[in-house]
Task: inverse folding
């Protein structure tokens, strides 16, 4: 979530001050609906929310909303330069309480100051992928192509990735490497879990592969920059969105579970020709890379009168 804010700031050419706020009771439990007494809402355990107020505040997440509201109110009541507030993701309360609300279109939120995106905002840029690709290339340069990037998430509130799902997935990845004559280049996440990671490593042990050990620096962006196609587990809107910025084939690995929002997200990308379900084989197709970040940055500049 923080990367979404950082990505937008960087797309605007800014080096932001990062604030990780924590709320006191009862604001923590009742955010965003308790909007009175915001001056006292912030716990000293988090970063301070106080003047001098910024020209631009980019926030995301339910617990960030009191900070956005407090900064916006303060700069409108004391005659100081106004803080332009951008709230990422559905704030639940009226969008009119912010200058701009940016939400994925599967949230189905509309309004005059609401901008919808097809995916999540991120920090992926061509410059970042080039830099990280150069760092990662020596680790896989001798492996046969195609290089299939496998971005693995894990169980969350609506999806399940357990031994039951991981075992057939790992076998299919090994079979894919055999059938294509290429390599599996995989990165797990913190939600993947040791058991799932062990299953994956065992299955691909006899095919060309690289699996991030979660000890060295994560080569995630290098994988995005170098691989020829991607397989991404369905639980992560962020990873699917980031893979789609490459313009390369993105296959979504379906998992048990899901929700209305996730189903709408995946269906919209399939309808737009960006992704396809993974059925054990690599398919080849092209599409215009997902460029939501640039469009949002342009909207912010226009609204703020920045050239």
Result:
């Amino acid at each position: 979530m923080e990367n979404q804010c950082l990505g937008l700031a960087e797309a605007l050419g800014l080096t932001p001050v990062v604030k990780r706020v924590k709320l006191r009771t009862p604001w923590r439990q009742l955010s965003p609906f308790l909007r009175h007494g915001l001056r006292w809402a912030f716990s000293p355990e988090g970063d301070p929310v106080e003047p001098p107020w910024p020209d631009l505040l980019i926030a995301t997440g339910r617990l960030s909303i009191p900070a956005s509201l407090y900064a916006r109110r303060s700069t409108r009541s004391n005659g100081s330069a106004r803080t332009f507030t951008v709230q990422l993701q559905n704030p639940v309360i009226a969008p009119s309480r912010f200058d701009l609300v940016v939400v994925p279109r599967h949230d189905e939120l509309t309004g005059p100051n609401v901008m919808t995106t097809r995916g999540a905002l991120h920090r992926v840029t061509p410059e970042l992928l080039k830099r990280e690709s150069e760092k990662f290339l020596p680790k896989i340069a001798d492996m046969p192509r195609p290089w299939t990037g496998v971005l693995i998430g894990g169980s969350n509130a609506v999806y399940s990735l357990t031994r039951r799902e991981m075992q057939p997935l790992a076998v299919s990845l090994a079979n894919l490497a055999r059938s294509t004559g290429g390599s599996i280049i995989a990165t797990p996440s913190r939600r993947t879990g040791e058991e799932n990671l062990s299953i994956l490593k065992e299955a691909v042990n006899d095919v060309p592969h690289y699996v991030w050990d979660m000890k060295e620096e994560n080569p995630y962006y290098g994988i995005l920059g170098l691989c020829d196609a991607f397989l991404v587990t369905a639980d992560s809107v962020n990873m699917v969105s980031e893979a789609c910025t490459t313009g390369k084939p993105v296959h979504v690995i379906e998992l048990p579970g899901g929700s209305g929002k996730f189903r709408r997200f995946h269906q919209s990308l399939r309808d737009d020709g960006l992704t396809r379900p993974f059925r054990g084989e690599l398919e080849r197709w092209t599409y215009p890379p997902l460029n939501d970040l640039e469009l949002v940055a342009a909207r912010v500049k226009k609204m703020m009168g920045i050239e």
About this structure: The chain has two domains: 2-118+295-304, 126-277.
